[in-house]
Amino acid sequence: MVQTTVRGAVAEALEDLSKIDFDKFSHRLLDYPEIRRRAVEGKSFLQITELLVSTFPGARALKVTLEILRLINCNEVAEKLDSKTEAFQDNGDPTFRKNSDGDLDLDPSQEAPNYAPDNRSLTAALSLGNVNLSMCTIQFGKYKGQTFKWLLENDVNYTAYLVANHQVERQHSTCQSQLMANKDSLTQYAMAYPEVLKVVRFQLSYLEAKERSCQSGKEGMALVGFGRHRSLTLQDLYNSKNTDIISYVNYLWGMKSTCEPGSRMEDAIRYIFQRDQEEAVRNTQTERETGPQHWTPVHQQIKVGFENAKKK
Length: 312
Hints:
Elements: H1 2-15, H2 19-29, H3 45-55, H4 60-71, H5 75-84, H6 130-134, H7 148-154, H8 156-170, H9 178-190, H10 194-213, H11 234-239, H12 243-253, H13 264-290, H14 297-311
Helix pairs in contact: 1-3, 1-5, 3-4, 4-5, 7-8, 8-9, 8-10, 13-14
């Protein structure tokens, strides 16, 4: 009954779109890994409706439709659809925040930094099914007391990091404590979404690279892990000749006094400063032997500080 109602409401919304907006809607559908291009191209609004309700069961088809409508700025159509269907039961799916490119927004929401962890005793969540899991509360970490659904809606990157760490933890432990059961439930809920699965895989790569970087002389093998160059190793970031990346390194250089202690940014800055100091010593020695050498912008900054420090 719910699915039929969703089908009718979605069909009416798509019918209200202009041809240009319908084409935009169909194109944005391709951002979802479950959707194939051949299933979208050349299809009518009724065929796209059937695709939505068959690919995204129940109320999730509605959420995907609303998400895309707002992304392409068809807000009036979205609000009309939303008002018609507001009584639908929540099926436990989070509403993911996305950036202008249609990718997951990995930064915490505006609400997230203001949350104060609930340190009261929490009971373990042992129910199965997506709806029940969505309402389970996390029992650890900086968002302790919030629901799993809230976590994915407000800080998907942090949630993926927790899940990745738990997967590594489970490789070495069969513990069945209340805390481990809570982590198991969070992993089950989060991994049900392909968008989150992709972020979890990156976090696993980050953890593997971090482990390799603990070896002496391998510090540069760690991944940056944040920002637009998150997939680069620290070594590749520092050694790059790309002007955009050089500019980003300079930006990080200037963030030393304001970055969050213990953050990935602090790790990257520490590596950059270490490399700069090594290069400063090396280039100073070379200048003594062969004359002035070329310095990159970052090295010019560190050279001044290095020389001033020697004079004190």
